[in-house]
Structure formats: structure tokens, C-alpha cells
């Protein structure tokens, strides 16, 4: 808490800062969509103490899939560029999350299921379960699912081959 502010004021300051990040990101992404001549609407929210911005489309067009790329590689790059645009405007490092065409939401559901199954396997075999290499976002989702199942997990290895290991009780 900063000197002279109340806890409630601190929370409001954080919320307004995250909303500002979302606004800056939305403006940046709208410009990108215009340049690329792609249709999409921007949705902003604050989730888990970070700004969350989504690009969604009403059309069945696969245009937005170009912005996701293979295994979300383009999405990850766009997220970093968007974070840099926010940093340039605010001077603060951003933890903003970007989703395009629901890719991250679908990926989160798949990874939660993977983490839950790995936890069940570790419980059943009493052996550690090592998963394939994942991005930081993917590992975080799996760690959360394993914790929700009542087990511990840890990451091991070096990027880009860093993976989650689910530990038995």
C-alpha cells in the first residue's frame, strides 16, 4: 500500500490502472486490425489482477486464426507487442493477457483437463508424471489444475523445453 492511501483506495487505483492498460491495448489492437484489414471486436475485462483483452469476431471467417498462428505462436508475439505498447504509454510493465477468437479459453480448458488427469495418474501410480514442454501460460494453467486436485507440481528444464512434473503425495 502506498503511503497516504487506504486499502480500498489502493484497490480502486489498481483497477483503474488495469482498465487504463486495457484501453491502451484495445486502441493498439484496433489499429492493428485496421492495418491488416481484419474484422474483429475488442472485449476488455480485468481477471486475476491483470487486464484481459480479447479479439472476437461474429463472422465464421478464419481471418482471426491468422492472428493466432500455429500453436498460438502469433498470439504470443502479439501479446508481447501489445504489452510493449502499454509499457510505452504507461511506463509500467504490463501482465496483460490477450486472447484471439477464443483460442486461450479453449486451450485453458484443455490444459485444465490435462493437469487433472496427470494428478489422477500421479495419485494412482504414486510416481511423478512428467508432461511435455509448455509455454509459461500453459504451465501456469496446469499447475493451477494440479493444485486444485490436491497435489503439488513443479517446472523443470530450460526454456523452451521447460515442462511440468506432477508429484505424487
From TrEMBL:
InterPro entries membership: Jag_KH, KH_dom-like_a/b, KhpB, R3H_dom, R3H_dom_sf, R3H_KhpB
Taxonomic superkingdom? Bacteria
- Signal sequence extent: none
Query: Does the record carry DNA-binding as a key word?
Result: yes
Query: Does the entry feature the keyword Oxidoreductase, yes or no?
Result: no
Q: Which residues form the R3H domain?
A: 105-169
The Swiss-Prot or TrEMBL record annotates one GO molecular function as: RNA binding
Which keywords does this chain's UniProt record carry? DNA-binding
| SUPFAM superfamilies, per database record | R3H domain (SSF82708)
Read off the PANTHER family from this record: PROTEIN JAG (PTHR35800), RNA-BINDING PROTEIN KHPB (PTHR35800:SF1)
Q: What is this protein called?
A: Single-stranded DNA-binding protein
The species is: Streptomyces violaceusniger
